[in-house]
Amino acid sequence: MHTWTFPIRETHLDWIGMPDDFDPSAIVDPTLQRLYGYWNERRAARAMPARADIDPLDLGFILGHLVLAEVLGDPPRFLIRVHGTEITQRVGYELTGKVLDELPQNDFRRLTQQSFTTVVETGVPIHRLRDRVLDGKRLQYETLILPLSKSGTAVDMLLVGLRYKDA
User: How far apart are CA 157 and CA 80, in angstroms?
Assistant: First the structure.
């Protein structure tokens, strides 16, 4: 069991860090650390790996806590290709095969859209420690948003790990 040491905040809209100061050593959750290590290994000397470099069989350790989002158009919209079963159970809605616009919680949808768009625009991973209210309960979660690109420059997919404090 790992120890969570990030502060309680009043709203999930608060951010810790900005994309230009991404620091993989700040990742708290061991499963997210492993996801970052896998992504980093797959990218090798490139800015980011392609979706084709990612083997779903290698991701069994995080599959239930994973989101795979395809980037559509400009400004970007996001088609959720995979919405992990653990996430679906926790939040009470399924987004696989849906666009992010269909996420039922307005504030969380805006925050997610902003984070996803930032990664698309910068090509730099984002790591966040946040709070969220679900079913009237405040929950802490950690997320890691990793860019993927066929071309090596334009982000066309996002690989996202999301772990709740008690997960």
Answer: 10
Give the Cα separation of 134 and 127 in Å (integer).
21
**How far is C-alpha 93 from the chain's CA centre?**
17
pTM of the entire structure? Answer: 0.86
Task: For 74-131, write each residue's pLDDT tens digit.
Answer: 999 999 999 999 999 988 899 999 999 998 888 888 999 999 999 999 999 999 998 8
| Both tokens assigned to 157 | 């997919």
90 Rama sector, left if φ>0, alpha if ψ -120 to 50, beta otherwise: alpha
What is the distance between the terminal CA atoms of the chain, rounded to a whole angstrom?
10
109-112 contact pairs (CB < 8 A, 24+): 111/12, 111/13
3-state secondary structure of 150: coil
Q: Looking up tokens 């700040």, which residue turns up? A: 26
Token code pair at residue 65: 């806590």
- The Cα 149–Cα 79 span in angstroms is 15
Could you tell me which of 65, 4, 69 has the C-alpha nearest to residue 31? Answer: 65
Beta pairing partners, 83: 67
